Amino acid sequence: MAVDKEKLKQAIRLFLEAIGEDPDREGLKETPERVARMWEEFDRQRSFDFKLFEEFGDYNEMVLVKDINIYSLCEHHLLPFFGKAHIAYIPNGIVCGLSKLVRTVRAFALRPQVQERLTNQIADFLMEQLKPKGVAVVLEMEHLCMSMRGVMSPGHITTTSALRGIFLSDLRTREEFLKLIGKSNQ
């Protein structure tokens, strides 16, 4: 679904008025346009070509991209949550370009979200696209809805994980992943 730029600009203007701001003052008069352009940019990043490579079909060890910077918006308060994503998969005859793992994270994160759903969406998408032996996704995020409102306690990290296939059924594979991302007790 495409962003309705005009409706969004009207909504941001109304929002600014509703919180007691003057949307025509110098610092805010361009804000509705800026916000609309930002959401158009987010919308463009949600679709991408998930390029697969079969010529590396004999590679059957873990592929891991860790410390992927990730930003999203809490769907309950529209405040950011941000942190790191760690993604691994074990190929089953097909690999993808490494940038596609980063693009997958971005595609699902650039919309109002909850971290738990985001974690599952990434894992499920990779299972569907790659048909690997398994996928592991760990997200470590700080939520501004907890840091700057509510309990007002910054610095807390919420960790979620989604394990599929061999990462769920084989303890050694899971431990290898956790060790590689620095989360294992070993």
UniProtKB/TrEMBL annotation:
Protein's recorded name: GTP cyclohydrolase 1
Enzyme Commission designation: 3.5.4.16
Signal peptide positions on this chain: none
GO molecular function, one term: GTP cyclohydrolase I activity
Superkingdom as given in the UniProt entry: Bacteria
Gene Ontology process terms (BP): one-carbon metabolic process; tetrahydrobiopterin biosynthetic process; tetrahydrofolate biosynthetic process
Organism of derivation: Thermocrinis ruber
Pathway(s) per entry: Cofactor biosynthesis; 7,8-dihydroneopterin triphosphate biosynthesis; 7,8-dihydroneopterin triphosphate from GTP: step 1/1
Source taxonomy: Bacteria, Pseudomonadati, Aquificota, Aquificia, Aquificales
Residues that coordinate or bind Zn(2+): 74, 77, 145
One GO cellular component term noted in the UniProt record for this chain: cytoplasm
Keyword Secreted: no
